[in-house]
Amino acid sequence: MKKTLIAVTVAGVVTFSGAASAVTILGITIDPGAYLQIGTIYEGTKASDGTAPVMAVGEELAGVGVIDTIKDSGGNVTWQSGDNGAYLAFTFDSYITEAINPFGAPTPINILFTGGAAQFYSMASAFVPTGSWTADTATISAGSLFMDVTGGTARTCVLADGCASGVGTPVTLESFILSGTLAAIGSGVGNGFLNVTGAGAADSVLDANVPAFGGNDIALGSSFNSGGSTAGYAASGSVDLRGVAIAIPEPTTLSLLGLTLLGLGAARRRKEV
């Protein structure tokens, strides 16, 4: 399911800036080529409404977050929170814990997840987390859907992982608790992949199937802990999303395409008459 550029343009959500050229969708500007989205993440188990950490196999990780800045391949900021009167926030869930190794032992602790889904929304005001995943998701999803993604396979479970679903289970997110415990994380990191579904306004621009990412669209990285300002969630930290934005035809090209389509339509009508 891919939303075409023509469909998005007709919907009135795409504008152009610059020559080759940056595209602004729902107020969010991305240059063609490699990009980096940087933000903040808040997370915990879905059953606890985000307030408790993952402690057992089978628990579902969920959370929310904001994207503060988008940069191009040269490190130049193409968009930051509030530009064009737009703010970018996201909600995620469906990451199911497959394995925790070693359990109850000193760090590092390796946690494997399967599944996963996230939705990114353009909002008219800055999102402030409340500590309730349910309430925060309702607030965020009142915005306009910018990007819709599901977890992409980073690797598969091997025998040594002891995954609940067995050898060969796709791993979409892998985390390491580097210090502290599962209940009180001193520091942790995570990485995985995401794939756009076609439902978001920007999905057609971000559906790049990047070879370096194993054909996935976006590489996800995060760092997190249980200390500091978690806004009521079990953990919080930073998140970055790396991908490749597909180049968009120039406005002139689109105009010519529109004239061609009109001509084809007129020719068809004449033929039918």
Kindly describe this structure:
With 273 residues, the protein is mainly beta. It has one domain. 15% of the residues lie in helices and 45% in strands. It is built from four helices and 15 strands. Strands 4, 5, 6, 7, 8, 9, 12, 13, 14 and 15 form a ten-stranded antiparallel sheet that branches. Strand 12 and strand 13 form a beta hairpin. It is globular, with a radius of gyration of 21 Å. The N terminus and C terminus are likely disordered.
What tags apply to this protein structure?
three-stranded antiparallel beta sheet, disordered C terminus, ten-stranded antiparallel beta sheet, 273 residues, 4 helices
Sum this structure up briefly.
This protein is mainly beta. The protein has helices spanning 5-10, 133-140, 203-206, 251-272; strands spanning 14-17, 22-25, 28-30, 33-45, 60-72, 77-80, 87-101, 109-123, 144-152, 155-156, 170-171, 173-180, 185-196, 218-225, 235-245. The protein has one domain.
